[in-house]
Amino acid sequence: MSNRNMSMLHTMYHQFKTNELFKLGVVLFLITTLAVTAYIGYKVRNPQSQAVDQTSVATAVEAENGSLSGAVVTVNDPNASGGKYIVFKPAIATSTPVPSVTQSPPNPTQTPTPIPTSLPLPTSTPSSSQTRILCDGKTYDGFSSTIFKLDGGEGADGSIQKIIRNCIFRNGTARAIVLKNAKNVLIENNTFQNIRSNQPGIGTHGIAVSPDSVGVVDTIVIRGNYFTEIGADGIQVGEGTGIKISNFTIDNNTFIGDEAWGENAIDIKGTIGPIVIRNNDLHGFRECQSPKRGGNQDCSGSPGEGMVIHQASNGNPDNILVENNRIHDNQFGLSISNLGPNSIIVRNNIIYDNRANPGIGLLVNNSSNVQLSGNSYTNNNTNCSGISPCQ
Ligand SMILES: [Ca+2]
Question: Per CATH, is 131-385 categorized as 2.160.20.10?
Answer without folding.
Answer: yes
